[in-house]
């Protein structure tokens, strides 16, 4: 079952169960997916997003909520922090398992050797290969400096 279909089915289940948090979060996910589908059509691509693209959208949603939670925490709005963290849990239920630090290190090392990358000029190729293979499984904001230090 595709990720899109799974989200739609879970949306119906949440509606029947009257699970308001899950329902509202799944509606937000659906809206983000549909927005991106519309953007693709605007770019001349007459297709729906793939599961990998949907995963990337949901990863961005998690990052946005983490930033919002930090801002709310600094502002003393703890009830909003809790809401953001609850939404993150729902979204993460659809994302692939996050790799551990050791697995990230191993993936970086394997990709660098596979591409025979040797200098900082190869960083773009390495990052693209990692993003293609591990979308949603690692934080690329943290991976970038790790790749850079290995290639320097």
How does this structure look, described?
There is one protein chain. The chain is mostly helical and 152 residues long. It is 76% helix and 0% strand. It has seven helices and no strands. Helix 2 packs across helix 3 (51-74), helix 3 (51-74) runs antiparallel to helix 4 and helix 6 packs antiparallel against helix 7 (140-151). It is globular, with a radius of gyration of 18 Å. The N and C termini lie far apart (43 Å).
Short key terms for the protein model shown above:
single chain; mainly alpha; 152 residues
Basic shape:
globular
In percent terms, what proportion of residues is strand? under 5%
Instruction: Indicate the percent of residues in helices.
Output: over 70%
Class from helix and strand fractions: mainly alpha
Note the total helix count: 7
Q: Uncertain spans, ≥5 residues at pLDDT below 50?
A: none
Secondary-structure element pattern, one letter each:
HHHHHHH
Main sheet overview = none
* Mean of residue pLDDT values: 90
| Cα separation of the termini | 43 Å
Write down the Rg.
Answer: 18 Å
Say how many strands there are: 0
